[in-house]
Amino acid sequence: MPNEKTITVVGGGLAGSEAAHQISKLGIKVKLLEMRPEKSSPAHNSNDLGELVCSNSLKSNSLDNASGILKQEMRELGSLIIEAADNTHVPAGKALAVDRIKFAQYITEKIENNPLIELVREEFTEIPDNLDSPLIIASGPLTSESLSESIKQLSNSDHLYFYDSISPIIDAESIDYSIVYRASRYDNGEQEEGDYLNCPLNRDQYYGLIDELLSSEKIETRDFEKGIYFESCLPVEVIAERGKDTLRFGPAKPVGLKDPRDGRIPYAVIQLRCENKEASMYNIVGFQTKLKYPEQKRVFRMIPGLENAEFMRFGSIHRNTYINSPKLIEPTLQVKDNDLLFFAGQILGVEGYVESAAMGIIAGINAAKFILNEPMIVPPRETAIGSLIKYITDTEVKNFQPMNINFGLFPPVQGKMPKPEKKKLIAKNALENITRVINP
């Protein structure tokens, strides 16, 4: 028999969908509020839950990478988001990339068919002064203005803003395969062909592209929207502004990508990553941009192999919102002076799809345990989830900014050993500790 109380979750993105799923697993009813289609956001294209508005990659799936460890912890906790990703994945080397349409459809169907979850399509505009049951705010980085104002009043401080930018998507049939070649960086021989398409540039082509990136027309940022970029998601033209060779040591790095036509490493390489199972769409990896749409078509068609590219989605840029979590949030993801109010997802200041969903897991489990009068969970810092929570709730952090999972957040490994061995030990400790959270 389900508990008669109901938990409200605001936001049908990755964190909100995950929170609702976790709550229902513990037998508690959920009211999941999603403002689309009643009110849309500047970045969404559909009304499906869990829509990916940036890259279709959930980053590494390997345990020698911090993101891979986080995913495995989430699998152990019964994550809906990782389940959806595993069932809709597309080739991407060691990364877990998904068919974004099927991924969102999978999540939506799971939520809509869950008898304990009531999906309500309406905007949530204000946090009530007096709550009588748990409320989880998982409204994401594109929180509406009215709810943003309510959160601002709650935290007694201004919001913090940064920008997130989106790479263009190319029609696969418009790519010139006589120039573009298939290869993965440092191919380990386990696959016949690489999972990435590669556009090779010689010296003149590279610097010609850089000159156009620097001189092309860009969308102006309005004064009230000004903020900072998250370092790992910089617009390509901002990278170019840091120095003409910066891009060649970043997204256009040629190392490990020999051109099979002559066996040489090109001066620069721009990679394309598959967007769907049918391999009909590819995004330009690392080429997030704020160029105006006509300029994107003109400039990106300078890339060898993309001279006749058809753009299925242009790159764009939007404002992301996050709160000052160290000041506001407990490690249980409750607000410090309100046990019934929880936050989850990217609005907490975690950066990345998987990181956001992981916070939904913890908020959902803890909100349900609060109703059940059971001890809430805080995974230890030896886990990826615990290390993220430690970061966003650490009151000693100055100038708090979004962070994605990385090995620097884990506790230091004692003793001297090669870096690969340290990573293996971190992964082993993390998975052992997440198992203890499930079976204390």
Overall description:
This protein is α/β, with parallel strands linked by helices. It has two domains: 3-159 and 323-438, FAD/NAD(P)-binding domain, CATH 3.50.50.60; 165-319, Elongation Factor Tu (Ef-tu), domain 3 (Beta Barrel). Helix 2 runs parallel beside helix 10, helix 2 packs parallel to helix 12 (419-438) and helix 3 crosses helix 4. The protein has helices at 14-25, 66-76, 80-87, 100-112, 145-155, 203-215, 236-241, 293-300, 325-328, 353-371, 384-392, 419-438; strands at 3-10, 28-33, 57-60, 89-90, 95-98, 117-120, 135-137, 160-166, 169-171, 181-182, 196-201, 228-229, 268-274, 281-284, 311-313, 316-322, 334-335, 338-343. The strands form four sheets. The protein has a six-stranded mixed sheet with strand order 6-2-1-7-18-17, covered by helices on one side. Mean pLDDT is 90; it is low at 188-192. The chain contains twelve helices and 18 strands.
